[in-house]
Design goal:
Number of strands: 11
Structural class: alpha/beta
Radius of gyration: 20 Å
Strand order of the largest sheet: 8-7-6-9-10-11
CATH topology of the largest domain: Rossmann fold
Oligomer: single chain
Shape: globular
Order of helices and strands: HEHHEHEHEHEHHHEHEHEHEHEHEHH
CATH architecture of the largest domain: 3-Layer(aba) Sandwich
Number of helices: 16
Amino acid sequence: MNANQKVLQKILVVRYSALGDVVLATSVLDPLLATFPGARIEWVTDAAYAPLLEGLPQIAAVHTLDREGPQSAVSLRDRLSRRFDLAIDLQNKVRSAVIARAAAPRRVTFRRRTAGRALLALLGSDPPLARAHATQLYADALAPLGVRGPGPLRIHLSRHAQALAADALGHARPPLVAIAPGARWATKRWPVERFAEVAEALAAEGASIVLAGGPDDRDAFAAMCAHLRAPVAADLSPLPVDALAAALARVQILIACDSGPVHLAAAVGTPALALFGPTSTVRWEPRSPGRALSLGLACSPCSNHGSDSCPEGHHRCLDDLGAHAVVSAAREMLAGRETATSER
């Protein structure tokens, strides 16, 4: 056992947003425990995402942070002060730094920025980080500790979450095709009428259409349904995030923008067809067995996380992506999954 393994017995990981980032960050858990056997790992995350982590055997405790205001971070800082040997700040924001610096004498930070780069990021200029997949970038942050990764994605699906998922899907008949038209940033959204076109084409071939997302996606669902003539078998937006993940585990494919449900699907082993425009497929593509679909324009990627408007003024990266290409890719993935299932 090396010196690090003797000292680092209590580790705090801080990653509280957004959904996809939290799920991808769980790829550090197995490598950490392989490097520091017996270590106690605790995690700080948003309350909405805590059910995904609570119950994981790799995590001893989950601490929640409110979305808004500094008081929650200050309170958590005081409660966690000097309780750990190491704090791993995978968020690298002001609030995460407040907690991590107080929690442990030693700190590892994701994506260290120079003062100039940090100022540019605050002003809205943050050049895309596209040299490796997000899970590899997290692993690289832990390399100074001797940690090798990335590991698998880990989320917990409680019996309650699975029961909620089963109820939401009801008697929908396979193949179940989940459609997630929502995305936080406007430039990451594919036109809803094309999602409707894809859903109609697959429904005509026997698929049951499931709307996947959370409460914030209901406007996108409504806009898509205004163009949709096929029936909707289930709407998953009322579900908590762990039940959404459990529902995605039951569908045959997810078709989505670059968004959190893509990584939930990857974590439960469901193929995701993710439609990319302004963000990097290298960094954010779904883990296997998923697939990224992008036109690969010269101006892409232009953003780490998307934005309110296209900096070039045309948004061709997604506006020029036709429904036929998405339907063709989805058919291939569905056929591949059917073949894999029949060979088991």
